[in-house]
Write a structure and sequence with these properties.
- The chain has one domain.
- Helix 1 packs across helix 4, helix 1 packs across helix 5 and helix 2 packs antiparallel against helix 3.
- The model has no long low-confidence stretch (mean pLDDT about 95).
- The protein is mainly α.
- It has 5 helices and no strands.
- This is DUF962 domain-containing protein.
């Protein structure tokens, strides 16, 4: 069944990132992307977006296959995945990711038992 809303997608996205190592690889990718995107904007050099996207996606995709044993959500939900990558990074930066992971897992567990 295809996910219809972003509200449904977010818990699915977090579930696809169960391992801390996978999430850490995503954080490095997100930070690299932001840095290269800022550099591209400041220097007006669009070519800097090539390494921005490469560093953002390629290591994360490898992590999904090797660590998580799943396919990247980006392939089925590219926009929502991009937003969620940055959202997960932001939650981690402000120290709220553990709470969010717990909350979404509790909701999934409650839904499975109802």
């Amino acid at each position: 069944m295809k996910i219809q809303t972003y509200r449904e997608f977010w818990p699915y996205y977090l579930d696809q990132h169960r391992h801390a190592t996978t999430r850490a690889i995503h954080y490095v990718g997100a930070a690299s992307f932001i840095g290269f995107a800022i550099a591209a904007a400041v220097t007006l050099n669009a070519w800097l977006l090539v390494p921005a996207f490469a560093l953002f996606y390629l290591p994360a995709w490898v992590a999904h296959f090797v660590i998580e044993g799943n396919r990247p959500a980006t392939w089925a939900y590219p926009i929502w995945s991009f937003v969620s990558d940055l959202r997960m990074f932001a939650y981690w930066l402000v120290g709220r990711l553990s709470t969010e992971l717990h909350r979404t897992r509790q909701q999934a567990s409650a839904a499975a038992h109802s």
